[in-house]
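step: validate -> pass
step: tokenize input -> pass
step: predict -> running
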Amino acid sequence: LLIRDGAILYAGERSGCPEAAQEVIDGKGGICMPGLCNAHAHAAMTLLRGVGSDLQLQEWLQQIWPAEDRLNGEHVYNGTMLAAMEMISRGITSFADQYFFMDDTARAVVDSGMRANLSRGIVSTGGNDEQKLQEGVRLFEDWNGAADGRIKVYLAPHAEYTTTPDLIHRATRAAARLNTGIHIHISETPREVEECRQRYGISPVRYFEREGMFEVPVIGAHCVAVDDEDIAILARRQVKVVHNPASNMKLASGVAPVTRMMAAGIDVALGTDGVASNNTTDLFADMKLAAILQKGFLMDPTAMPVEKVLHMATRAGALAMGFENVGVLEAGMRADLLILDKDAPNLTPSTDVLANLVYAAQGLNVRLTMVDGKVLYKNGEYLTLDKEKVLFEAQKSAHALGL
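step: predict -> pass
step: emit ->
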């Protein structure tokens, strides 16, 4: 790879490289691949790691929300920096984040050197819908395109069960006016779908289509409890579905019909969700789980080939977040990549490299992470973060939340 000004100028055999480089990174003994794209996360929830274990979603939320009520901007910055440190060391170069105090999240993205799609989560409790929506709009105005294009901003009504039709209408109109998209949770559990049917007589997917939300680009997180008609709508409306297998399994939400969605033409991406419902940001772990979950549930070993899983974790995630020039190692793309240690015990022998990446690799095998041509992590050393400071400040913030 020849990289200039953050972009890949050439990708191919060394003999065909058009010019010599001023700086050479020796990748010998390594596997270079596109950086992983975590298409659904709540980064600052690293502060809530371990909270509400062994509970279903609605009960889990009752543990999470009181702690989140105590958050401030400093906490969110520190939690996001901790998440960035973890993600960088595990080869994640970009993430889609829906949370609160998002100006502080944006500062953490700038300081860490990562790429991100950011949105201010909006929950219709206690009123102030319009204020929260305007905070999302201001986030767009202040940060969309910032950090040399590494930051995109969407709007984010949280979910059907935490918003009103009026909020969905206003958020959609605002997104259309700003020429941006929406990041939202959709049909995460059967209970969510059943309660939506009780309220409106239709599923969340049909409800969102009826209310016009799919007229703008949408990142739809989860989509676990969807039927064939829902899937057809998601495909027709080109919704970017994000599969979160570890979170869904931990919360016992169910198994998303990923193979059916892919067969319908949906370009499904992959996410870790928040650390409180996953406990880690290791997308390699989610890759393996995404593959074997479909195989085991469908009793079909061909259900989820490794090539599809790798696409979910790279190019599909980049496209879901709106980054057209990320996720492939070819000329003209931004230089977001990672290098894995091919000679690690768990990756030896390398009889099938792609199978090793999905079934054997771990985030701890990453030896280099690069975003926009800048090395963020190399051989255990963070080049944009002060490791001890990040750990200290994150622990202090967790204590301040009473955790």
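step: describe -> The mean pLDDT is 96.
step: cleanup -> pass
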